[in-house]
Design goal:
CATH class: Alpha Beta
Distance between the termini: 29 Å
Number of strands: 8
CATH architecture: Alpha-Beta Barrel
CATH superfamily: Alanine racemase
Number of helices: 9
Helix content: 40-55%
Bound molecules: pyridoxal-5'-phosphate
Length: about 230
């Protein structure tokens, strides 16, 4: 085994154990949580090693990097999650290589996503990103805008509403924010019973997210190590 492979395998084992322990603590089955490994800033060679180690879901947050990596790894049967800010003029391109877009935060991106999904020829799983910050300028739709946006996703052909996604607010404890998010997720589920996904939890707060019902955790640095400096 190469050193990098060994390191990734060891990190994955720790993260899987954390997920299992968090699930046990709240009486959930570990299989009820999907691990999405966030590979942003790391090369396609790492994605390949991860796939070989049993990872099935990867997350990326920058369009150009994601597009290139997805193309390089097209032979692998991975599910690609786009978790970054969507530019409306790039939405169609993102939908062409993504299986899930977790960061739908305004109606303006829906037309592009619809077009990209149509070109791909199958429905695109979408999550509405919720802002838990109450601060303008941070990613995500304000809580009050989530239901109307979710209804618009439902009304868009080619898009499948699967639930909500959020990042914990900066500098505040994650638990109350994730509890609030769980309430928003329940409201969205009442629009469509298929919208069961709750994507929350990163390397530092996956336990709190699982406690609040997360079905997907997005883990970067705990698996891949500290991110290299931005070039
Ligand atoms: C980078 C990123 C993550 C992973 O963060 P870590 O703290 O490295 O686990 C999760 N979600 C989003 C939206 C991200 O941009």
């Amino acid at each position: 085994m190469t050193q990098r492979r060994q390191q990734l395998a060891a990190n994955l084992a720790v993260v899987r154990e954390r997920i299992a322990t968090a699930c046990a603590g709240v009486g959930r089955r570990p299989e009820s949580v999907t691990l999405v490994v966030v590979t942003k800033f790391f090369p396609a060679s790492d994605v390949r090693l991860l796939a070989d180690l049993g990872v099935e879901h990867v997350g990326e947050n920058r369009h150009q990097e994601a597009e290139a990596k997805a193309a390089e790894c097209a032979d692998l049967s991975l599910t690609w999650h786009f978790i970054g800010t969507l530019q409306s003029n790039k939405a169609a391109a993102v939908a062409r290589y993504s299986d899930v877009v977790e960061s739908v935060d305004r109606a303006k991106v829906l037309r592009g996503l619809e077009r990209g999904a149509d070109e791909r020829g199958h429905p695109l799983d979408c999550l509405v990103q919720v802002s838990l910050d109450d601060a303008p300028g941070r990613a995500g739709a304000a809580v009050a805008d989530v239901l109307p946006l979710a209804e618009q996703v439902l009304a868009t052909p080619g898009l499948a509403l699967r639930g909500v996604m959020a990042v914990a607010p900066l500098g505040r404890p994650p638990l109350p924010a994730f509890e609030r998010l769980a309430g928003v997720a329940a409201d969205v589920r009442s629009l469509d019973p298929a919208a069961t996904w709750l994507s929350a939890g990163m390397s530092g707060d996956l336990e709190q997210a699982i406690q609040c019902g997360a079905t997907h955790v997005r883990i970067g640095s705990a698996v891949l190590g500290p991110r290299p400096p931005i070039k």
